[in-house]
Amino acid sequence: MTRQLNGTCTSSVDMELFLHYSLIPSLFIILILSFLQRREHRRQRDDTSYLLGNRFGIIMPLDFVGTFSNRWSYGIAFGATANKVMFLFSEGYQPLQIPQWAQAFELLIGGIEVGLSHFPFFACLSSEFQLVSSILGFCYSLIWFAVTVLQVSQCPHGQFVGKYETLMFYWPSLLCLAFLLGRFLHMFVKALRVHLGWEFQVEEKSVLETHQAEHVKQLLRTPRPQEKKKSWFQTRIYEWDPCFQFPSRMIGTIVLAFICLYLFIVIEFCVFVYVRDELDVFENKLESYITFTNHSGVLTPVILQVKELISVTKGVWVATILPASLTCVSYLFHILVCYRKHIKRLWAGDKHFLPLKFHNPASSASVVAIARYSGWQIAYVLWGYLIIHVVQSLCGMAIMYGLVLPIVHNQGLEMLQGLGIGILTISIVVGLMILQMWIAASFFLQPKLGTADKQKPLALNNRKAFHNFSYFLFFYNVLLGLGACLSRLLISCLLGTWLIARIDRTIMQNGYEGADMGFSAWIGMLYVDHYHTNPVLVSFCHILIANHKEKKLQQTTKYWCLNQSAGPRVSARSRTRWFLLQTLINNPRLIIHRKLKSGHSSQESQILMACLES
C-alpha cells in the first residue's frame, strides 16, 4: 500500500520491513511479562520446567469472554491494528514466497506475525504488574507512533487523492497510538503513586461485576409500573440499561470495524479515481474519433451512448458512497442492539428467536465460533459495503435511465406514459388479488361465532359457488404465478444483498440456516457468553467463592473465636432454615418442587398443590 500511494516519493521507512523487525522488541516485552507472571501450579521435580520455578507463566492479551473493564482501551488497541488488518484483508501482505496452493498457510503466518507484533499493546494493558507494563507499553507505542509519523511526514501526498493522501490512511492509527501513549502514562503515574505509598493498592478483582450484581438485584425486586413515559428514541432505537455492559470483545470488534470500513472506503475511492482517469483517457479517444469523422461516422450514436453511460456510472457511483456507508454504519450499531437483545433472551431462558437446530449447538463449535466472530464480523461488513454499494449503484442507474434521462432528452411525456401504463397494470393485478380476498371473506366463509371474534372461522360456506370460483381462477392464477415467482426472486436477491453484512440475521431459508457460517458463528458466540457471563450464574459462583474464602479464613485463623462479636450467636442451620422460609413465602410455587421427606405421602403433596392453585 505504501508504494502504491507514494509512487513519486521514496520513504526511508518500509512499513512491511518494520513489521518484521518489530517482532524483536515484541518478543522481549513478552518474555519480561512472562517472567513476572507466576504460575499457579508448579511442576514436579521430574519435569524439566521445574528448573524455572514458578516463573514464566502464560500471559494473555485479554479475556475474550468475561472482560468488562478497560473496554475502550482494548478497543483503541484493536483500532491501532486497522492498517495491518487491511493489509491482510487485501491479501497484499505476503511475508513468504510459497506456492499458490499453500496460500492459506501464508495468510495464517501473516496473521500470526501481525498479531505477535501488536501483542504487547494488549499484554501491557492487562498485566497485573502495571508499573513495569506501563513503561514497556509506553516505549513500544512510542516506537510505533514515531515510525508512523516519520512515514507520513516524508510522503504525505499520493497519486490518487492528491494532498495528504497518506495522512488519510494513517490518521486513525496515529490517533489510537496517541491514546495508548496517554493511557500507559496514566497507568504509570497511578502505579507509581501506589508503589510510593501515596495511594492504596486496589483490592483483588471480584468475579462478579457491578452491573451483573445490579442485574440480579433487579430480578429480585418486585416489578414496578413505569412512572415516566419512554421517548421515541428509547422505544424505537435504543434504551440505555445501567445493568448491562458490552464485553471488551464486542467494543474492540466495533471500533476496529469502524476504522476498517473507513479505510476500505478510502481505498475504494482511490481505485475509483484511478478507473475514472482511465475512462477519461478512453473518452478523449472517443471524442477525437467523433471530431475526426465530423459527427457523421457510423459509430457516432453508439459512442455518444457509451459516453453517456460512463458519465452516468461515475456520477451514480460517487452519489451512492454516502448511503452505502451510512447503511453499514447503522448495521454496526444495530449489531450491538441485537447482541444485547439476544443475550438477555438467553439469560431469561428464551430460545424461540433461534432456529430449532441451534437450540443445542455443539460445545466445540461454540468455542471455535467465539474465536471466529470478530474477524468474520469485520470481513462481512467490508464485503457487505461493497455489495450494497454495487446494488445501490444499479438501482441508481435504473432511476437515471428510467426517469431522469428521458426528461433530459425531452422524452418526458413518453416516460410518463410508460410509467402510467406500468403503474396501472400493477394496480389492476393487485386489485384483482384484493378482490379475491374480499370475495372469499364475504361469500365463502361462515359467520363469526361471537361478536368479540376478530375474523370469521375457517369454515367453508356456499361450497358449490366456491368450487366454481376456484375452477375459473385456476387458469388465471397460472399466469399470475409467473409474476409472483419473479417478484419472489427479485425480493430475495434485494433482501439477501441488503442484509449480507448482518451476521446476526441469517439470509438462508428455514431449514438451511446451518449453511450460513456467519450466523452459526454469531449463535456460537452468544452461547459462550451466555454460559460464562450469565449474571445469575456468576453471582452464584461469587457467593460460593466468598463462602469458601470465609471458611478458609476461619480455619487458618488461630484465635478466630476471640474476634467474634459479643452478641448472641446464631447457628448456620437456623439461619439457613430462616432464609428457606422467607424464600418459600415469597415464592410459594417452589414448595411443589421441593423433595418430599420419607414421612410425607403423595396425598399430602396433592392437597398442598390444590391449596396453592386455589
Protein described:
- With 614 residues, the chain is mostly helical.
- The model is unreliable at 1-6 and 558-567 (pLDDT under 50).
- The chain folds into 2 domains: 11-39 and 57-202, no CATH class; 298-449 and 456-558, no CATH class.
- It has helices at residues 2-5, 15-21, 23-36, 71-79, 82-89, 103-117, 119-126, 130-154, 165-195, 210-220, 232-236, 248-292, 300-319, 321-347, 363-408, 412-443, 463-498, 517-533, 535-556, 572-586, 602-613.
- α4 runs parallel beside α12 (248-292) and α13 packs across α15 (363-408).
- The termini are far apart.
- The radius of gyration is 34 Å and the shape is flat.
- GO terms for molecular function: retinol transmembrane transporter activity; signaling receptor activity.
- This is Stimulated by retinoic acid gene 6 protein-like.
- The chain crosses the membrane at residues 18-36, 129-147, 167-185, 254-275, 316-337, 382-404, 416-439, 474-501.
